[in-house]
Records
---
Amino acid sequence: MSSRKTPAASERTHEKYERLIALAKTMPAVSTAVAHPCDEASLAGAMEAAQAGLIVPILVGPKSKIEEVASQHGIDLKGIEVIDVEHSHDAAMKAVEIVRSGRAEVLMKGSLHSDELLSAVTKKDTGLRTGRRISHVFIMDVPGHPETLFITDAAVNIFPDLMAKRDIVQNAIDLYRGLGLGTPKVAILSAVETVTISIPSTLEAAALCKMADRGQITGGILDGPLAFDNAISPEAAKIKGIKSEVAGRANILVVPDLEAGNMLAKNLSFLSHADAAGIVLGARVPIILTSRADSVRTRTASCAIAVAFAHSQRSKTPIRS
């Protein structure tokens, strides 16, 4: 039995996140509507990002509750705008309204449920919808892996169809390029690397690759179906005899459905001790979905990614790191 010890959190490096945070800190802080920051984690997360010079928060929620949380946990709200609304539902609607009016370029989730915020975002007449399907991307800093891994969609779309997956892929590519990371290699994941009618995700993977060939997906290099091992391990790809620009070198991993993506992301988090920043794309502005379980570094990285992407969207050209 191996005596190898699991590295403690304090021993793990975050060099990939540090680069993203450093990039965002070179840019002006972005006005951010924070919906219902009514617990310590969400309020402190927003204020930590503000202190880091990443965002200018507009706090939207019951003012008395926000001030109570700040007082209890020693969080300084001096100079911070607080917009008083009664309930979390009102906070979600008001935060979206602030973004629609142009007062904020980023939307951030507080202590309300993700579904409640996204419901306000997706409302037909008052939300932040675009022609794209909204999707989530985990930006994962995996110890021992040389590059940041993007995993999508593991949080919003449960069983996306082919056209939804087209948008999911395009959203992730646009984020990767918008962060100045270059042209991504996109692996469409399945259980196997061969197309077989008995596994529908392999058929969709092949279709997505052909869509990229025909210009329906742009900006990335796609290959699939690929199993997880031969998507990220050059050795596994070589053993299987897979020859492609993506196999063994994937930057973006597109999962078949939310269940597979959620399990993959959590396996990397709990077994490989990866950090997982999260952002929602496809709306008018990037949306930061924070979790109570997120570390300070992860919350800050999520804000940094949203800020850098918001700046790239202003000019529609990639930011160079």
---
Amino acid sequence: MVIETLPIITNIWTDIQSLSPQAKERLGYPTQKPVALLERILKASSNEGDVVLDAYCGCGTSLAVSQRLNRKWIGIDITYQSVSLILKRLEDAFGKGAIENITLNGIPKDMASAQALALKQDDRTRKEFEKWVVLTYSNNRAVIQQKKGKDQGIDGIAYFRSEKDDPEKIIFQVKSGKVNSGDIRDLRGTMERESAVLGIFITLNKPTKDMTKEAKEAGIYKSQYMNVPVDKIRIVTVQEMIEDQKRLDILLSLEVLKSAEKQMEVRQGQLDFE
């Protein structure tokens, strides 16, 4: 018989270290907590099948641990960038089935709710519309432009594999107001300045014929890593994103977070994300 002596855990947990910048589980989120910490908390305070509520879920460590420990969960956060990070984290760890079983509330699901978010008077709230557009269209793989200067014209950036040694750049631009062909010319200038080979122009309003013509005149991009040539400038409407589920169909090489090892087969069941 083997008798193992387990350490006595006090109310001061100094045995779990904070995450270092080089930690494998690090996602780049400023207030990220160690998985070991949330594991201890959830094992001590809940059982399998219980519901865990995290009202400020951030990058979703509590949600990912709840998923692995077979707890149901509800997560709440104010910014869609956190939501996107969590969705990608869960997909990487547990597979696409985990995403299919999540209920998302508080994000645009039709044109009326998209317009309501886009036309908010508060700048911070309106910025959430841009984040939602870029991250949703890129399947949570683009990087949001955090500081938008007066003449930057960039709301998101992504990179894809190319025939060069370094990845090529895609820039995203989102417009919620009136649009015209001058917007596409401005985007072409931004692409040239930023050395981006592709530009995605996403608009809440319907593009004009002149805009479509201007975009076509930018030419096409060919690569051995793409099945077919693609337009250098692509115009996408929010309506197409919502009603036709239109998404970016280019395999990206750099993502919004690092890939995680798949931890378990997804258990069936309804999960809520408020």
